[in-house]
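Morning!

As promised:
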Amino acid sequence: MSGADSPFFIFAHLRILQVPMAIVITHNPHETEALGAQLVTTLMQNQALRATSTIIALRGNLGAGKTVFVKGIAGALGVNEVITSPTYVIQKTYHTHAPVPWKRLIHIDAYRLQGEEELTTIGWDTFATDPKNLIVIEWPEQVGRGVPTQALDITINHIDESTREINMPYGDTEGSVE
Ligand SMILES: Nc1ncnc2c1ncn2[C@@H]1O[C@H](COP(=O)(O)OP(=O)(O)O)[C@@H](O)[C@H]1O
Ligand SMILES: [Mg+2]
C-alpha cells in the first residue's frame, strides 16, 4: 500500500475508558477488513476492557461496511468459517482458533429487533456476561439500553462509493483505567 491507497489516520483526544480513538479513512473493503483485525490487537492491549464479555457496538448505515469490518475481526481471531451477515438469523456464534483471550465471536445483526426485550430472546443475558465472548452488535440503536454502556462504540460513515470514515478505539492504553 502506498500514497492514496493507504488508510488515513487522525488521532482524536477523545477517550473512552482511556482507550485512544482514531478516525481512519479507508479506500476499499480490504483496508476496512484490516482495521477490524487491528481492533483485535487494540482490545488485547487493553486488558481492563475484558473484565466481562467484550462488547463492540458497530454503527453505520446499510452498506457502510460493518460486516466487512467483522470479517477482519474474525480473521484475527482465527475463525475458520466464512462470515456472512446474520441479518435473518440475528445471531451467529463462531469459535476462535488463535491465541486470543476469547473462545467465541458472537456476531449480532439487530436490524430486525425492536427494543431491548428482544435481545433477551436470543440469549443475550447468558452470553453477555462471559469474558470468553467477544460480541459485535450491528444496529445497536435497535435495542436501546439493551447494550450496556461499557460497550465500545465504532462508527462507519459512508463517504462515497469506495471511501469510508471509521471512528474506532486504536492503540495502547495510556496509564491505568480508572
Ligand atoms: N472502504 C470500504 N470499506 C468497506 N466496504 C466497502 C468499502 N468500499 C466499498 N465497500 C463495499 O460496501 C459494502 C459493505 O457491505 P457490508 O459490510 O455488508 O455493509 P453493512 O454490514 O454495513 O450493511 C460491500 O459491498 C463492500 O464491498
Ligand atoms: Mg451487515
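The chain has one domain: 3-169.

Hope this helps with the figure draft.
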